[in-house]
């Protein structure tokens, strides 16, 4: 079961050939997907030969094969982790019952909504990033961008497979709609706001893949616990691909920091103007980008109190991060959780029923995880002997969802008034001139082994190739 059939039109490890109706439906969707890729995939890239990895099996060891591929010919397909015999539901009201191999009628609408919302983010990020190839800082980075893009395309396939197989006609219609919405478009935008924001430059891209793809990781981890077994198996395999996306983000930001610190030491200055004149991104600007991407991303977890979150959990649709590793009763009925509320002009913690706070639980797990990379970035600064540390802002900073929406909070967590916010926002969030400066650095570097001035080369290449390897051939 773990080996992938590449001989059929749609590569898969789900015996697609045995389900003619499904196969036909997906084969009808396939050309629409390709025309979406041609219109909205990476700009001007269709003839390039890109050194990409392709899944050859879903075994944890060595599932990838590397080679030059033209992206429109990438073998997108349907790969599920192998079924676990006798898998049981391990949380919620159905705890201990057999996992579902089909969608129970009463959960159909909610499951469809969960799958569509997840599915919508995948093509959205490809659309957000489609112009970045024109300003890649190196062939290595260009290749990584394209790898992320083709895998987000495959994640769309993963969700569309579930819609087609388990949701009949509604599912097929949702599959079409996923190709019709457009990131940032007024009349038919993507579902979640962070996926309608532009990704205008490579610093944004690295921050996005570090912070926002990590939101993807947490959502997928929660879905990988699902009582609906096909969803659990699909998302488990998606997670193996997601790890690389976060690596691209973490190492990308790290290389930007490394280069900036190098120039700071060469010029013996921390003056942003002098550093900008030298063509590198000053650390306060990096901090503002970090503040922006962190705050926009934690909004993606939804309202801090949500009856939907309680329903999704209790009915077994969506678990917690690492549900299986937790020592509680996995039903949480009498449990409480502390969330932040504004009371008399101050942020205070208040206890609410845990089941209603599960979005907040997932957000807090995410925050713990994302702080790890920030401390690794700080190690780079520390090693350069520079007295500056990056910091994730307080979770109430710059929020637009839940009870913290609309409250003005400084990055250190102080509740402030409108006036103070306006006086300092340019120190806390990227300004027009920050973005214009970062944009001014973006130039295309396509000579093998050359890297743009604002970013250090990576330590090692992809798949043990050298860093001056020809990762993309333009023909
Ligand atoms: Fe994805
Ligand atoms: Fe991703």
Structure report:
This protein is mainly alpha-helical and 475 residues long. The protein has a single domain, classed as Ribonucleotide Reductase, subunit A (Orthogonal Bundle), CATH 1.10.620.20. Helices cover 47% and strands 7% of the residues. It is built from 12 helices and 5 strands. The chain has helices at 20-40, 108-128, 139-166, 168-180, 202-223, 229-267, 272-277, 283-298, 307-314, 358-383, 418-428, 432-441; strands at residues 49-55, 64-70, 336-343, 346-353, 472-473. Helix 2 packs antiparallel against helix 3 and helix 6 packs parallel to helix 10. It is globular and about 65 Å long. Residues 152, 213, 216, 242, 245 line the site of one fe (ii) ion.
Task: Identify the notable features of this structure and list them briefly.
mainly alpha; Ribonucleotide Reductase, subunit A; three-stranded antiparallel sheet; two-stranded antiparallel ribbon; 12 helices; 5 strands; binds fe (ii) ion
Provide a quick synopsis of the model:
This protein has 475 residues and is mainly alpha-helical. Helices cover 47% and strands 7% of the residues.
List the topology elements.
Layout: H1 20-40, E1 49-55, E2 64-70, H2 108-128, H3 139-166, H4 168-180, H5 202-223, H6 229-267, H7 272-277, H8 283-298, H9 307-314, E3 336-343, E4 346-353, H10 358-383, H11 418-428, H12 432-441, E5 472-473
Antiparallel strand pairs: 1-2, 1-5, 3-4
Helix pairs in contact: 1-3, 1-4, 2-3, 2-4, 3-4, 3-6, 5-6, 5-8, 5-10, 6-10
Bound molecules: fe (ii) ion (2 copies).
One fe (ii) ion binds at residues 152, 213, 216, 242, 245.
């Amino acid at each position: 079961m773990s080996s992938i059939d590449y001989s059929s039109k749609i590569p898969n490890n789900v015996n697609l050939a045995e389900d003619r109706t499904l196969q036909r439906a997906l084969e009808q969707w396939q050309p629409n997907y390709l025309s979406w890729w041609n219109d909205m995939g990476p700009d001007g890239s269709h003839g390039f030969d890109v050194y990409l990895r392709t899944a050859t099996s879903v075994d944890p060891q060595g599932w990838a094969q590397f080679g030059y591929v033209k992206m429109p010919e990438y073998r997108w397909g349907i790969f599920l982790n192998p079924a676990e015999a006798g898998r049981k539901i391990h949380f919620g009201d159905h705890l201990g019952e057999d996992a579902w191999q089909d969608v129970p009628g009463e959960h159909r609408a909610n499951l469809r909504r969960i799958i569509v919302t997840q599915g919508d983010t995948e093509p959205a990020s490809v659309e957000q990033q489609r112009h970045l190839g024109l300003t890649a800082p190196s062939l290595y980075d260009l290749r990584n961008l394209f790898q992320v893009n083709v895998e987000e395309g495959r994640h769309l396939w993963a969700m569309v497979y579930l819609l087609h197989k388990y949701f009949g006609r509604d599912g097929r219609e949702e599959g079409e709609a996923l190709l019709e919405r457009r990131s940032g478009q007024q009349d038919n935008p993507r579902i979640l706001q962070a996926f309608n924001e532009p990704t205008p430059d490579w610093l944004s891209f690295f921050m996005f893949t570090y912070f926002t793809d990590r939101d993807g990781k947490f959502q997928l981890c929660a879905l990988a616990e699902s009582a609906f077994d096909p969803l659990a198996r699909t998302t488990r395999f998606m997670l193996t691909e997601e790890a690389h996306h976060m690596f691209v983000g973490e190492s990308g930001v790290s290389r930007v920091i490394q280069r900036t610190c190098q120039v700071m030491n060469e010029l013996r200055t921390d003056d942003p103007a002098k550093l900008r004149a030298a063509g590198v991104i000053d650390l306060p600007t990096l901090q503002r980008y970090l503040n922006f991407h962190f705050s926009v991303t934690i909004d993606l977890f939804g309202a801090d109190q949500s009856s939907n979150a309680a329903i999704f959990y209790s009915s077994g649709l969506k678990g917690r991060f690492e549900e299986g590793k937790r020592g509680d009763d996995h039903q949480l009925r009498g449990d409480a959780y502390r969330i932040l509320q504004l009371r008399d002009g101050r942020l205070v913690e208040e206890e609410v029923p845990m089941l209603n706070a599960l979005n907040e639980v997932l957000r807090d797990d995410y925050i713990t995880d994302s702080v790890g990379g920030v401390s690794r970035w700080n190690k780079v600064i520390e090693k350069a002997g520079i007295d500056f540390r990056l910091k994730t802002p307080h979770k109430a900073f710059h929020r637009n969802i839940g009870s913290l929406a609309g409250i003005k909070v400084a990055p250190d967590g102080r509740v402030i008034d409108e006036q103070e916010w306006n006086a300092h926002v340019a120190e806390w969030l990227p300004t027009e001139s920050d973005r214009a400066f970062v944009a001014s650095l973006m130039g295309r570097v396509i000579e093998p082994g050359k890297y743009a001035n604002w970013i250090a080369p990576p330590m090692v290449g992809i798949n043990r190739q050298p860093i001056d390897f020809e990762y993309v051939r333009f023909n």
